[in-house]
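Reviewers asked in the last cycle whether our approach scales beyond single polypeptides. To address this, we selected a multi-component target totalling 390 residues and predicted its structure end to end. The input consisted of the following lines:
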Amino acid sequence: MRICFVGDSFVNGTGDPECLGWTGRICVAAQKQGYDVTYYNLGVRRETSADIKARWLQEVSCRLSKDYDGRIVFSFGTNDTTIETDKTRIKFVESIENARQILQVAKQRFPVLMVGAPPMLDTEQNSRTVCLLKQFEQICLTIDIPYLDIFATLQKSDTWLQEVADYDGAHPRAAGYQEIANLVQNWSGWQSWLT
Amino acid sequence: MRICFVGDSFVNGTGDPECLGWTGRICVAAQKQGYDVTYYNLGVRRETSADIKARWLQEVSCRLSKDYDGRIVFSFGTNDTTIETDKTRIKFVESIENARQILQVAKQRFPVLMVGAPPMLDTEQNSRTVCLLKQFEQICLTIDIPYLDIFATLQKSDTWLQEVADYDGAHPRAAGYQEIANLVQNWSGWQSWLT
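The resulting structure, written as structure tokens, was:
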């Protein structure tokens, strides 16, 4: 199985001193269970849904094929809701349209999962992100892509909040990424790929 | 510092149950030394110099900028020398021209290092790969890119040869990738980025 993880800095694992992030951690765990996983990390810092829309298909196409059981996990959204020069980097309706287009095209080609975005320290941005994630979840429901919310659990996690506060206000360190990895590994969507 | 590692399955770390490969291992070590490294792994299985020439600039451009101290490490060559339908996948002169073009363009934009390719079990392919790597080394010398040979050392490494033999004849497991990581970490080219 060859898996492309497509998204932003949280997919890249920015801040993790072990250079795995949650994506690498769940692939290591899958390999320990005996699954032969090729791990392609396509998370890019600062990227919005518009940036991802512009590159994901080309990057995935040279890495995956149906012959080698290619699959995609998406996770993005936080950078869309960042304020720059008095407005969000991406308009709310555009973010929704970008996500819909990305997910619809992806779903026609490969099995797809979507993992939501985590909370940051900025409560106002968090409110905007939660609104956007609800729309992403609805899109996934409509086109039959399993979606995992991680925001609610992490917002109550002392480990997550403390690591984010101690680092840069956005990204955790090893333990925080392990928390996301645990959520994904206990999720039926991910588990269905490993049976 | 943000580093793109561009190449083939050996850059991807295929076969490593720890999902780090040599590229992840040297970035983990750099982080432990206190360097703030963003790790972008752009290794793709089966890719030749022609495949890499077609995608590297676009993939690197959305990940690196001069504002964030972007750097590139290339490593490829083995797939060029694989025989398919009675000839190598890429003609010898074309491999050389691809490498020259990739490295020249990269060097104009970012600091660049090149790491050679490792040996496989196939001795005839190894001979072809060694010939090609000598040319790559010459190109690097001409355009002033530090080049590290790893082939000769690994060919004498029991750990490397045993892991490759036990796995798929081409890729090692964790200990083999750690051997490459050790060679790179002890190399003045890499060390010059961490001082």
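The mean pLDDT of chain A is 97. We regard this as preliminary and will revisit it once experimental data from Aim 1 are available.
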